[in-house]
User: What shape does this take?
Amino acid sequence: MNDEPRPTLRPRRLVNLTACRCPISMIRAKVALDSISAGETIELVLAEGEQIQDIPCTLKQEGHRIIAVVHKGATHRLTVCKGR
Amino acid sequence: MDGKRSVRDKGRNVRSPAAGPAAVADVAALKAGGIIRQRQKDRYTLRLKCPGGRMPLERLARILEVARRYGGDHVHLSVRQSIEIPYVSLSDMDRAKRSLAKAGQEIASCGARVRVPTACAGCEWNPLGLVDTQRMARLACDRFFGQGPLPHKFKMAFSGCPNDCPHTSTNDLGFQGAVEPELDEGACTQCGLCVAACKEGAIRQDSATSTPRWIPEKCLYCGDCIRACPVDAWRARRTGWMVRVGGKHGRHPITGVTVAEFLPDEKVLETIEAVLAWYRKFGQGKGRVRLGALLLEPKAWRRFVADLAPVLGQWAVRRPPPPRSNEIYLAKSGG
Assistant: This one.
């Protein structure tokens, strides 16, 4: 859409959530997103199971965009662009 | 005033129930009006009508006022989402009901009639909710609540998604929200998030093209894939209600079964009407029997499926198995 912020090329931060348990993982993801501006990106590393099942749809619901995904074994690296 | 007396000793001094047929008839009449006799002499619990467990604050305020004035020191939240006011004396009952009525708070019913429907939040405020359970419970309550006499009680539940918190399969008639996904392959970026998001393994990634492939026999129609897809390539092909009949808990539990899939909103009330009519007709002369108990009999089940087919139409499940007895108290332990 025209009014969506254009993502920056280089992610500002990488946040590994694999050691966190629900609901701390989502809280940490939100805190990480709070630290950047709309249009900037961060990378989140999520574990198999609850994290990858629940966090992407919550991010989408809150208006952020997942612009790249890399699956590596039991972890998943998401590049997330912060919405408005 | 009784309502202001100390309630510390209300659990003691248990009296025997009043004897005789007149007393039994009185209790039955009271139950029909949501007034339930307690152990304590001349104390009754007033069961309130709270469809879907939704309680507007103005009514809640009035319930608090009435409970303080005429009840004990607490209210009780029933298993079916109603607020109950215990320890009301019969002589205060009319005043309590009138006061509640002025705030729009009605009374529930007990006995062999249609009970207040239960419902979860549904899509009104739950992000996982697929259908508007609160609205449908209200419509069903307005149209069918209290209808009777029926062979036995009749309970309905409305669930917003396959988590099925209102447990549709242990209600006489249950409606549970579901969404059938479909993929727009042109929009798909093969990111694989849907595969990871699916808790049921109902999406696999094609090894050659990385395109997601849907496995319908594993799908619970929950919509996790649709919610997870970053580019909205997974979409809702159709959304509606899974319809379950014949469930009950109690002494002899029965697990209800799905008889229709993706039933649209506009068919729900008609379906309830048809099921009630069937129950009323085929339960006649069979004593105090729940719908599920009637449907355990194979001939009755075949008749039910055939009679409901015109109502359920294209949404009917073909040749559904009958409800299943789930005896949990009579199961023998053993080596």
Remarks:
- The interface with chain B takes residues 48, 52-53, 56-57, 60-61, 65-69, 71, 76 of chain A (CB under 8 Å).
